[in-house]
Amino acid sequence: MKKAFAIAVKDLRSEARGKEIAPAMVLFALALVFIATFAVPPGSGRAPVPPPVAGAVAVREVAAVLLWLAVLFAAITGFGRSASAEQDGSRMDALALAPVDPMSLFAGKAAANLGFLAVLQVFLVPVWILFFGLPSRALFPEMFAVLVAADVGLAAAGTLFGAASQYARSRHLIMPLLAFPALLPLVLSAARLTSTLALGGSFVSEVRWFVLLIVFDVVFVTLGAVLFQFVIEE
Amino acid sequence: MKKDPFNSLLVIVAAGVTAGIGGIFFWVPTDDFQGIVQRIFYVHVPSAWVAYLAFALVLVGSIAFLRTSNPRWDWLAHSSAEVGVVFTAVTLVTGMLWGRPVWGAYWVWDPRLTLTFVLFLIYLGYLAFRWMATDAGHGARVAAVIGITGFATVPLVHFSVDWWRGQHPGRTVFKPESSPDLPPQMLVTMLFMLAMFTLLFALFLALRVRLARLDAAVSEMEAA
Lengths: 234, 224
Description:
The structure holds 2 protein chains of 2 kinds.
Chain A: H1 2-18, H2 22-36, H3 51-88, H4 91-97, H5 102-132, H6 136-139, H7 142-165, H8 171-198, H9 207-232
Chain B: H1 5-27, H2 41-68, H3 71-103, H4 111-132, H5 136-164, H6 184-223
Helix pairs in contact in B: 1-6, 2-3, 2-5, 2-6, 3-4, 3-6, 4-5
């Protein structure tokens, strides 16, 4: 008992001096709770629905937000891992020395991350449709456009933030901290389009969200292509 | 010892803010609808303005630093982010104190509140990165990239939260700054506080940049 206490005191003291874990943990949880608030209350920003239908609407709206939160989490964890694998073996130095311009480096890494997302969604989306009992006929084929548009932005932003977070201690906590607020518009757009499709609504009526997704893609592909060189250079 | 230019600015800001607070408590008429709590706007609005100004300077400093590699720009960006986060916190807290009696809740997910909170998170992330950067030199360049992307996402966040919560009643709440028949005392006090907070920001920023410069000088000496 005494020994366990001593170990605990040692760990806490080390954290109190270094402050590497607790602040990042708090900020991470704060960002997470914040994004989760968008799932509730369902129906925010839509026309009121009569009570018998409201329950089904609520389930589908929450389902849409949850799908994209799951994608966001898996993406950020995976991208962080793929970026730190590069860092751990000093492979980044080798790549920086290779005759590859930073723009191609960024494009290649983003394309690989896009591949990870595609694999993830091949498994995730059918399970999600099944578990929430969603009408797959209403979702497709438009859902493909939503997935592709969201994945491009997610991969571009994830590649940039993943590389950036490698230059910090507690990088696995820093990565979501940088990415969550920046990816909020992407998650909201994708979730809104998904829930519109799941509710049998028309894609055209919510087309501004799709435009926002495309703008997000353009902004982050451009930022990544231009700024990646400053992140990897040493 | 030579005369410090900060001291004169400090005197002006201290006198100005004191006069402004006097104006808020004794000169401005009490708002008919919201009552006494409306007076918090004379601190809330200037803080929000200063926060936006600070984050714009983070962008300017970050871009200039990547282009010129002059550490002064990095000091500007880092310092401005720190001061900006403080003023964002003031904006959020004063807003919550106002919201409790007027909206009946400390927090509602109104688009503007949500945007302000996202800004807070973005620049808190920027500062967390700076704090945890493994290498001060290269960390500054990566931080500049984060500073630029952070600002670039602001319009996207703005549209997304605005559309998502588009029908929130928060938006229709009486807004004193857009009211046409604003008593002159209110307008004058608001403009005066805006000016004073801008000077206060300049003072904080100048002191923080000086601190960054001294910090860099110490690191240089330690390395030598």
